Structure formats: C-alpha cells, structure tokens
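Task: fold both queries, return tokens.
Query 1:
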Amino acid sequence: MDNLRRFMKENWWRYLMNLVLAGGVYWSSTWYATTYHATANVHILQTAFDRWVPVIPQFIVPYNWLQPVLYFCLLFFFVFHPKIFTAFGVAFIAIQTVSNSIYIVFQTYVPRPTNLVAGSSRYVDALLATYKSDNPYNCFPSLHCGLSALAASFWWVKRSYRPVAWLMTVFAVVTAVATQVLKQHVIADTVGSLLAIGLYLLAYRIFNLKTEA
C-alpha cells in the first residue's frame, strides 16, 4: 500500500496529462473517416506479386481483432505505466498525423476481388461486411500494419513483459499478412510497420524509456 501511495504521489500529474493525451489519441483515430475517399488523383500501387497473393477470408479474424487489442494495450499502459503511455500516445498521434497527411496528398486505392459469394462462409460474409464499411482508399501507408507494430513495440520496453512482447509481435506480423490476403492493402503499404518502429525508437529516446526497463 505504501508503494502504491508513493507511486500515485510521484505520478498524479502524469495521469492528468495522460487524460488529455488519451483524448488526443481518440480524436486522431477519427481522422481516418474524413480522408478515406477518392481525390483528384488516386494511385494504384498493386504489383504482379500482389495480384498473385491469394484471398484467404479466414484472416478476417485477426484483422478485426486489431482495435480491441490496441485499446487494451493503451488502457494497460495508462493504468500501470503512465510514462510508457505518454510515449505510446504521442507516437499514436504521430503515426495518425503522418498517415492521414499522406492520404490527403497521395491517395491510393486497392482493387478488391469480385468473385466472393455472399453466404458461402461466415469468413467471406465477414470480409464482405468489412469491404462494405471500409472504402478501398487510405492504403499507403497501412494503419493496420502501423498500429499493430506500434502496440507490439511498446511491450518491449520492460524486460518482464518479454512473453507478451513476443506474442504481440506475432500478432503484428499476422495482421500485416492479413492485410495482404484480404486484399485490403498491397505489399508497398506495409511500410506502415517501418514507420511505426521508427516512431517507437524516436519516442523511446525522447521519453528516456530505458528507465522503465
């Protein structure tokens, strides 16, 4: 109990700051809805490799898990590791800012398969529902790749969380694969993962997260 009191005494100001930051995180997550539409110039980055990649509807399961997993990670760090949350939140807003800025000036489009039959399986139906609710724009860089990689990266800060970090890294890789086999993105869009890792390394240095290890 004494340790908890000392922790709260030392970090109360950070929790207040993080409440404001959490609002910024949520607000930045809504920007996507204002940019995922066609613009005057729309680019298609699909290659022969992308056309060769098969459609595997079953990957809609991990694809749809990103949002709950991401917000669990944010909530966990907010409650238990406010300094890590600060860095995570700033990096989250940064990747949203960079990505949505690119969508505005360099809009991209991914062709989707036309041979999926509704009712053929629950996975196909779930994929078609995703297609219906998510326009095929805002592809480069992929926020699915970027945000899953960002969430995984911050688990590596603390040595005691290595098992979770490995699990989250696998999840990020599976998510990146899902974006390809669901035809939500092309291979070029996975640069979002590299952007996320770069922002993590920058945040790690700026916020001196080595003290949290």
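Query 1 returned. Query 2:
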Amino acid sequence: MFKPLIAAAVIAAFAAPAALAGPAERLDRADHRLTAAEIRGDIAQGSRADFAEDRLDRFENKVDRRESRRDEAVDHGRRDVIEDRLDRAENVADRREDRIDRQN
C-alpha cells in the first residue's frame, strides 16, 4: 500500500532539483561541460567550437546577472543578503573571464 507512495516520494526528491533549476542553472551545467572539454584540450583555442563556447558562456552570464538582479530586489533576511553578495562576486569573476576569453 505504501510502496507506490514511497517510490513517488523518492522520485520526486531526485527530480526536484532538475525541475526547480532556473535557466541560468541549466545553462551553467552545459557551459561547465564545455569549459571542462576546453581545459582538457578537446576544444582547440581559437576554433569555431571555442568561439561557440565563449558565446554560450557570455549568454549564460547575462542570464545569471538578470536572475541575480531579480533576486536582489527581494530581501528574505541575512542569508539572502549573503547570497546576493556571493552572486555579485560571481558576476564580477564572470565578466573578468569574458574579457580574458575575448583576448584569446
């Protein structure tokens, strides 16, 4: 009697992070895989794939900044303020990385 309910709860627990992930989160996962391939040397520097990875990275950063601005507009206490500061620091690092990518 409880087995289907338990199975549904377990499936929901594992599926929730994927379902609740915002657009920046999903783009970040794809970008992370491409960046790892670039670091391993699978993507040659200056190639079309490298250019596409850089474009995706800039687009992901733009979506992430937009999401951060929406999040900063609402204050849910001290932890939220700390998260907003971390997001701002991440945005600064992303912009720095974008400038380095454009130089290469």
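Both queries returned. Flag for query 2: Residues 23-103 form one domain.
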